[in-house]
Amino acid sequence: MNSESFKIAVLAGDGIGPEVMREAIKVLRAVERKFSLALKISEAPVGWAGIDAAGKALPDATLKLCKESDCILFGSVGLPDRDPTIPKEERPERAALLRLRKEFGLFANLRPVRLFKELSHACPLSKERQGNGIDILVVRELTGGMYFGQPKKTEEISAGAGKGKILRAIDTMVYTTPEIERIAHVAFRAARVRRKKLTSIDKANVLENGVLWRDVVMTAGREYPDVTLEHMFVDNAAMQLMLKPAQFDVLLCENMFGDILSDEAAALAGSLGMLPSASLGAQSGDRVFGFYEPAGGTAPDIAGKNLANPIAQILSTAMMLRHSFDLSDAAIAIENAVAKTITAGCRTGDIFSPAETNARRVGTIEMGDAIAGAI
Ligand code: IPM
Ligand code: MG
Predict the structure, then answer these.
(1) Atom 8 of ligand 1 has which residue's CA nearest to it?
(2) Residue whose CA is closest, atom 6 of ligand 1?
(3) Taking phi first (over 0 means left), then psi (-120 to 50 degrees means alpha), and beta for anything else, what does residue 326 get?
(4) Which 3 state secondary structure label does DSSP give 270?
(5) Is-cis flag, bond preceding 276, omega within 30?
(6) DSSP-derived 3-state class of residue 288
(7) Distance from C-alpha of 42 to C-alpha of 82, rounded to nearest angstrom
(8) Is 93 in the pocket of ligand 1 (CB under 6 A)?
């Protein structure tokens, strides 16, 4: 791909989004200089910032910019306490984030969970339970299941004569064979270049979806004899993550289970502020449209205070360089700079422990400066 054509739509969003994004761009510019890239970075409002600027969580101009770009670098959206009069369908979570996932067909969500050795104090599990280390890739299906299945509504039903009305809420869990197949192949391919173990999560003992999921994943697995496939019920997986996380390499989950388990796994990495993610669409030619965002949310309680950890956003740019632009050297340069900065003892509050003798507590900006300096 010609470097002239690296067009990135930057949507910082709400809460800590803008301040961690600023640091990510700083690091990206350092990589651009080092590798003589030409990145075209254009910013646009989204989330409450979109509602404030243009009356919509995903303003038309923002969507247009995304469509004209090669990928989206996203911050975070959603401030639960803001304006309760805005209906749920128009709030940022559904009107911006879910809409973008659907609009760009971003069915494959990759969430790498890795606990840096130096940060083992920040992991809620004892050293003993951390085993040989925590390094898990959660592969979450992102455009199907209960998030999008129809019908999805709240309706009034009659409770019977004289008893008035009662409400009934319906969400539908639905998956087709091709939807399961394509995400299974993403997970198997990922496992192949890791430790070659894939744990597929389902609830086949209760759900029709679970039975089909297991069946389709098993069939897809015949094409990957080098990958060890195991199946696990979601409730057991939630427990195993706490008891013996080192047993997992790649976890393959449907949308809702992946949402829940990826947050649980994230806690193991010491802080949500450490976790990047990539949401990818289908490959077209040598390109795949990608959406890159930190796994943590807007963290309104610490927004604007120079406290947020920018590492998740910075590592998301590394995933962007790797998956959207095939620039693995540049991606590795960012990952190495983060590792070096952590080894040097730089810590934002979320990963700081006074017990660490060589650690230094820093703010968002200082962390960004240190990582950019290490590129
Ligand atoms: C995530 C988030 C979103 C989800 C919310 C904000 C809609 O929790 O990306 O995991 O549920 O998918
Ligand atoms: Mg979530």
Answers:
(1) 259
(2) 93
(3) left
(4) coil
(5) no
(6) strand
(7) 27
(8) yes
CA distance 305 to 135: 31
Q: Is 299 helix (H, G, I), strand (E, B) or coil?
A: coil
Ligand nearest to the CA of 97: 1
Q: Whose CA is nearest to atom 4 of ligand 1?
A: 259
Residue 366 CB–ligand 1 contact under 6 Å:
no
Active site positions, annotated: 147, 203, 235, 259, 263
pTM greater than 0.90: yes
One pLDDT digit (tens) per residue for the chain, 375 residues = 444 579 999 999 999 999 999 999 999 999 999 999 999 999 999 999 999 999 999 999 999 999 999 999 999 999 999 999 999 999 999 999 999 999 999 999 999 999 999 999 999 999 999 998 999 999 999 999 999 999 999 999 877 777 778 999 999 999 999 999 999 999 999 999 999 999 999 999 999 999 999 999 999 999 999 999 999 999 999 999 999 999 999 999 999 999 999 999 999 999 999 999 999 998 877 778 999 999 888 999 999 999 999 999 999 999 999 999 999 999 999 999 999 999 999 999 999 999 998 899 999 999 999 999 999
360: left (phi over 0), alpha (psi -120 to 50) or beta: beta
